[in-house]
Design goal:
heterodimer, A: mainly alpha, B: mainly alpha, Cytochrome Bc1 Complex, Chain D, domain 2, signal (chain A), Pentapeptide MXKDX repeat protein (chain A), Cytochrome c (chain B)
């Protein structure tokens, strides 16, 4: 009688111990550390006064943000934008002739995408 | 002649003894000795230099390259080669040989020989396309065409100059 009880208990232990050990191992390294979050480009922090409009990095950033702005057209909160942008600085440093070019490039690309 | 034969069989014997005794430690958390490290490093650098010698470098100043190269880098490379503002990751700490931190200028990698810019563009292209044997560096050419790889070369060329904010915008999906 006693021996069967011990046998049953050890059988249960045999199943439970590995199960518990394995499930602990799964939580040891927090899975959230390995999850890549897909984030939208954060275009609010751009400092236009420091930008060099001939730099490919700047042009690429403008492109990405203009694309994003177009997509989010309706959701944009224009009241907030006006507060953050310093237009006095922008007018001085920005070369609008070049900016239009970027806009055109994006338009061209968009037309391409529609094919 | 007899001496040569003796030396050869001694060499083969030693090699077999080393192979089968199991005394070579292959653990990644145990660095090579200076000598073995130097041996492997020289072999790698010269092999890449030779293989990449005649690769023609295209224009790498197209902003579009920074966008495709940027998203590709973020999703395929940053886990090992890091992003601006980051100094370590599971991969950068755990892999041996360690993946170089590509967010700092090439000149400051310790012990790596880097020639002029064209030469390093060539080498980067070759390494990304073909990978490096017995290291964590995969060959991306099996799944990506040359144009995408050049875009990554263009991106990592600018990577050391990028702020975390610029990096975020360039590499974000939308």
């Amino acid at each position: 009688m006693k021996t069967t009880l011990i046998k049953t208990i050890s059988k249960i232990a045999l199943v439970l111990i590995p199960t518990i050990t394995l499930s602990m191992a799964a939580t040891a390294h927090d899975p959230s550390m390995h999850v890549k979050k897909v984030k939208k480009a954060d275009c609010s922090k751009m400092d236009h006064s420091k930008m060099d409009m001939n730099d490919p990095v700047t042009i690429a950033m403008m492109k990405k943000c203009m694309k994003q702005a177009k997509k989010a057209n309706m959701e944009m909160d224009h009241s907030k934008m006006a507060k953050k942008m310093d237009h006095s600085k922008m007018d001085k440093k920005m070369e609008h002739s070049k900016m239009q070019k970027v806009d055109k490039i994006i338009k061209k690309k968009d037309e391409h995408d529609n094919h | 002649m007899k001496l040569l034969l003796l030396l050869i069989s001694l060499g083969i014997g030693t090699t077999i003894a080393v192979m089968y005794s199991g005394i070579v430690n292959v653990a990644a958390d145990e660095p090579h000795s200076d000598f073995v490290y130097w041996l492997l490093e020289e072999t790698r650098e010269n092999s890449i230099k030779k293989a990449a010698k005649n690769i023609e470098v295209p224009n790498l100043k197209n902003p579009e390259q920074l966008l495709t190269g940027g998203t590709d880098y973020e999703f395929m490379c940053a886990s090992c080669h890091l992003a601006p503002g980051q100094t370590e990751s599971d991969m950068s700490l755990g892999l041996y040989p360690a993946p170089p931190n590509l967010t700092i200028a090439a000149q400051s990698h310790e012990g790596h020989e880097h020639g002029d810019e064209t030469q390093s563009d060539r080498k980067n292209f070759w390494v990304i396309k073909h990978g490096i044997k017995a290291s964590g560096m995969p060959a991306w050419g099996k799944t990506h065409d040359d144009e995408r790889i050049w875009a990554m070369v263009a991106f990592i060329k600018r990577l050391p100059t990028l702020t975390p904010e610029q990096y975020q915008v360039l590499t974000a999906v939308e």
